[in-house]
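Limitations

Structures in this collection are predictions, not experimental determinations, and the ligand pose is part of the prediction. Treat each record accordingly. The example that follows, with NAP as the small molecule, is included so readers can see exactly what is and is not provided: the inputs are given verbatim, and the output is the predicted complex.
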Amino acid sequence: MSQELIWITGASQGIGKAVALAYAKAGHTVAISARNRETLQQVVDEAASLTGRILSLSCDVTNKDQVTEAFNQLIEEERLPDRVILNAGTHQPMAASEFNAETVSKLLQINTLGAAIPLEVLLPHYLERQQGQISIVASVAGYRGLPTASAYGASKAALINLAESLRAELYSSGVDIRLINPGFVKTPLTDKNEFDMPFLISVDEAANAIIKGLAGKKFEVVFPTRMAIAMSFLKWLPDRIFFPMINRGTGHGR
Ligand SMILES: NC(=O)c1ccc[n+]([C@@H]2O[C@H](COP(=O)([O-])OP(=O)(O)OC[C@H]3O[C@@H](n4cnc5c(N)ncnc54)[C@H](OP(=O)(O)O)[C@@H]3O)[C@@H](O)[C@H]2O)c1
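Predicted complex:
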C-alpha cells in the first residue's frame, strides 16, 4: 500500500483522533486539525512511535482565513492530500420547550458551514487535479427528525444533501465525494447524552469502519450495521407510524 497524505478536521479527540491514529499506524501521514493546539499536540505525541506521521494543523473550520492558511501550509510543506475527512462537529440537544434560533444557528455554523468553508477552499484544487477523495461526516440523525435533535439533525440533514449534490455533479470527474454517517460512537460528544444509546460502538470500531469504507467504492459509509438497518427502516416508515412510534419510543409520549 502506498503512503497517503490525509487531512482530518476535528481530530484532537473522538472519532477523528481514532481515524488519524489508525491511518498513522498503517504508515500514512495524517494532518489533524482542531481549535485547541494543546490537544492536537497530545495526539502528535501519542503517535510518535507509530510507523506513519501525525502533523498538527490547527484551525477553526468556521473561519475561512484560518482554513485557507492551514491548507496552504499543508500543500507547501507536503502536497495536496490524497484524502480529506471533514469531520469537525458538535452536538447540543434542544427540547421544544427550550427551542431557540441561536442553538440552531450555532450547530449550522459549526457542523454545516464547518464543512462548507473547507470545501470552498479545497474544491478548486481537486477540480483542477481531477483526483482525490473528500469525505463529509454527517450522521444517521440526519435521516429523519428525532426528538430534541432539531438543531443537530437539521445541520446533519443539510450535510447529507450537500454531499449527495456534490457527488451527483462530480460523479464522472476524478473527485471522489463520500458521505460518512456514523450511528452512536462513544466519544466526549456522546458522553454528554443521558439516555441509553442503542448499538453504541467504540471509536476504534468507528475508525475501522471508516477506513474500510473509504477504501471501498460505496458513496455512503454508514455504521454500525444494526444502527444503519434501524435508521434506514425509520427513513422509509410512513409518517402515521413513524411519529407516534418515535414519540413513545423516546419517552416523549404522555
Ligand atoms: N459520536 C457520535 O456518536 C457521532 C455520531 C454521528 C456523527 N458524529 C459526528 O462525527 C464527528 C466527530 O464526532 P465526535 O463524537 O468525535 O466529536 P468530539 O469528540 O466532540 O470531537 C469533535 C472534534 O471537532 C473539533 N472541533 C469542534 N469544533 C471545531 C471547529 N469550529 N473548528 C475545528 N475543529 C472543531 C474538536 O476540537 P476543538 O474543540 O479543539 O476544536 C474535536 O477535535 C462530528 O461531526 C459528529 O457530529 C458523531
